[in-house]
Amino acid sequence: MSPTEANRSDFETVSDSQISRSERYRQLVDELLLAPARIVWNDWRARIAITIISVFVFMGTVGIRLVKEPRTNQGDRLVGAFQTLEHPLGTTPLGVDIMSQIIYATVPMLKMITAGAVFSVVVATTVGTISGYKGGTIDRALMALTDVMLTIPGLPLVIVLAGVMDISGNPYLIGVLLSINAWAGLARALRSQVLTLRDADYVEAARLMGIPTSKILTVDIIPNLMPYITMNFVKQARAVIFGSVGLYYLGILPYSTVNWGVMMNNAVKQAGATSSPAAFHWLAMPMLAIILLSMGLTLFAQSADRLFNPRVRARHAKSISGDNDTTSEVKS
Amino acid sequence: MNYVIKRTGQAIFTIFATISVSFGLIRLLPGGPTDYLRAQMLQRGEDMTAQQINRRIEAQTNIAVDEPLHIQYIDYMTSILTGDFGTSHWQNEPVTEVLGSAVPWTIFIMSVSLFLAFAIGISLGAFMAYREGSRFDVASTGVALVLNSTPGYVVGLLALVFLGYRTGIFPTGGHHASGLEPGLNAKFLLSAAYHGALPILSMTVVAFGGWALDMRGNSIRVLGADYLHVARLRGLPERRIALRYVARNAILPMYTGLMIAIGTMFGGAIIIEEIFAYPGVGFYLISSIHQRDYPVMMGAFILITVAVVIGIYIADMTYGKLDPRAKRGESRESY
């Protein structure tokens, strides 16, 4: 409910004219941006998550302008990690700086993540809510499709597609390809959530009032699903990282730019990093990057859960007004 | 009963759809396998008539390219359904033979790690929820988060480096020690377990954290539910509350996750098999792609999918027994 609507209640009649436009905007900003930001920032996990994600975004945008593009003979051969200031993460046997490789690989990674996560979440939300709410034939048809997509194992399908199709190295395309059937799981989960919601009193009331289905879905149903959707956006982002790096490692996806998976592949295949300790840092650094970025995303999903949890929101509202309420609903 | 028939039909339909997709990929994709094979044969400059080339393509892909499309489709379907996956042109053996020996190994490492991860995950998660906020809970959450953010192949590579090459505690490849005859004797089984240990470990380590976090979240949600207050007020014994009220309701939402995990773990198993040179279905899938051995590639894809379909089918059939509410949705009227 927007603040103006709230104020229109019969009992506390406050006419609209009393709130100036700037005040109304300020209220909106406060409700939509500042309050969530405060809740999120209050959580240590969110602070770490936002820091990590910002660092990677910074690397992908400003970092590539600060650091020279990776090429051979940038430095001595096979310098270990944390040995020199010039090459903080070391170099490869061809003298390529590993840090610049890591940084330059961030750009296509961020593009893949975004494309894949947006694609899967949008498709899943559309399919899941319509199917769960409408029921009947539409539901059966959509769920038949979803079940097929859900059961066909994702990575093998992508591997086969990549092996058969002539895909170019476009990161957006690869992101979508990696999420080709990832929406199915979320669509099913959303559908089962909608099933419990469609019979809720307020939804029934809205239906009886003749409010159009599209409006019921967007106003009454989807906001309740936001925790699921956010969590899955992040989950899919992580799946795209895992999948793309894995497939690049296997040498299945075509590549034109440097990639963490390609780095790992080269480290193992060219320098024998699994058996030779001297090249281990070449393998370890991209691993570290993968774990860090996906940990940032995981932590973010966890703290986002708080944002949508009405209990946490309510508790937070109390703590703003000075009431130091530390009870947890669990122990009661 | 109606549900069983419906669900069985669905499983069969999915298998059908998968084989159709595979047919489409081989036949309909411009620049796809049939085009590639043809181009390759023409390039080699062998003196072959168009008919001979078509024969060769048919032998390799199971598709008679000179027939009309619908006949090709029916032929392909029947040959796959009768177990004829074509011949591997790399190993010059029937695909069924190449993959047949690999299937049990993949299912072995997959199912063991899935079971271990789920069992460790739910018990740890329940315990974490019970001790919510304690130092144990915070530490476990941290560990679970880190593990959950790590792909299986990273753990696999690290295990290979440290437990395989550097220390030599575990073997770095193969199903079992060479020279051992497969059979139901202790020596062989131990060797198989020893060789499977690192792949299983890699997949379990990264998966149980996620289950634990899910279970923890669900348990905490259930712990706050009204029916638990009612159960306590009724004076039910704690054990009954913990098992019948908390555990059961906390595990249920994870059941769909378990079904999806069967599918995703196959993807993980492919990379893990490659890392540990563990000749399972995934291992052959990867090498067939590098070799452009399309019959093996499609055979592996179909086999993996069928295995997943069956796994999920079994999981689905038992779902109704766990959650009576799952059945109610079937007879819903539409709005």
Average of pLDDT of chain B:
83
* CATH architecture descriptor text of the largest domain in chain B: Orthogonal Bundle
If helices are DSSP runs of H or I spanning 4 or more residues, what is the number of helices of chain B?
14
Report the order of strands and helices of chain B. Answer: HHHHEEHHHHHHHHHH
Residue runs with pLDDT of under 50 for 5 or more positions of chain B: 328-335
What is the end-to-end distance of chain A? 30 Å
Looking at the structure, what is the overall shape of chain A? Answer: globular
User: In percent, how helical is the residue content of chain B?
Assistant: over 70%
Could you name the ranges of chain A where pLDDT drops below 50 across 5 or more consecutive residues?
318-332
How much β-strand is present in the residues of chain B? under 5%
What is the CA-atom radius of gyration of chain A, in angstroms? 25 Å
CATH classification, class level of the largest domain in chain B: Mainly Alpha
Please indicate the count of domains of chain B: 2
Q: Please state the overall shape of chain B, judged from the principal axes of the Cα atoms.
A: globular
CATH homologous superfamily classification of the largest domain in chain B? MetI-like
**Strand order across the biggest sheet of chain B?**
1-2
Radius of gyration of chain B, CA atoms, in whole angstroms = 25 Å
